[in-house]
Target: Vacuolar protein sorting-associated protein 17
Amino acid sequence: MPEPVVGRVTETEMSKQPATFYKQEDTPLTLTLTSIDKAKRELVYRIKAQTDLTQYKKRNYDTIERTYAEFERLHNYLVNAYPECIVPILPRQPDESTNFDKSLRLSKNSLQIFLSRLAAHPILRQDSELQSFIESDFVYTPTSRANPIKISRFRTKAKDTGSLSDDKRDPLDREYSALVALENNLQNSSKILTRISRARKNLSGSEVEVADKLSLFAASEVNSPLSKSLRRLGECFLKCSELNGVQTDHKNTILGYLFDNYIRNAKYIQLLLLNRINVKADYDTSVKTSEKRRQAIIVMKASANIKAEKVNQAVEDLEEAKQFETYKRALHNKIDKNLRSEIEVYEETKSYDFLSCFNTYARKQLDLERQKIQLWEKMLNELIQ
Model:
């Protein structure tokens, strides 16, 4: 039975940098997944790194070994430490419940894309934890702490701007709505893929049954030409069943993997956009607090009985409130400004990933359909002769 070619990538091809969409030609950090060791209890991913970043001890690291759990620790840290950045998708572990080798090849390609996009990110590549992930000779565990992004359901609410035209809505509000729609559409598409796969499996099973019946019919048929044709027809049905199995497997592996990644990614970016609203609410609250304390001092000044200690305390409270307001304003501005540029990169990345996947999927499906056509054409020619 023919095998899908998608995911079967050589080390040379893996070393090519996937599209990153950051506006630069050369990056000062390159991460390459060279191999995966399956001999140990856990899969061990071998990476090499090249860098011109000054904080690194060396320029080349050829023997970095990390498990998937270590990748997860790094990814979780980056997600929580940088609410102003969209951290690249970390693919799931290879699925041992299905075809492990195919799942491993697809995971390998996706992990290389994750590393390339992480290394190209102008903010994330500077992180000290990424440096520790590359340089540490021991099991990697983040030494820095990052508070998890938490969204209060009572304080956070995406703006209802449905009545506004698209050109008047904030691009980040439009993006949030688009992400909700994307998540729902991909989830529905995944359910339909499951139904299609189930139908194809039933079709493959029926074709095998037809092939078996034709084989029995051919064995009992005394007319030699008819017996030969029946046997040949049974072989065609059997090969069609195999090709349908490949199509089903290919559909699940390629489209299912892409949809799953982007469902998780859509949820994550929604969280970032809601966190931005939370930070804006905190900033607005700090502005109100500063104003209240300013008004309190004005009231004190107008009072006939002013106690020095109360005035001093009020001034201290105002200074503290102003410092907190300045901090919250800077945090909000950083998150708001950076997310706008990050969303642009995300949209380009998403388009590239989907179009590349659909291109690969369509080519493979066409190839399999051509094999079916060639199969039946060959049989037709044999019958005509």
Remarks:
- Residues 12 and 34 are 9 Å apart (CA to CA).
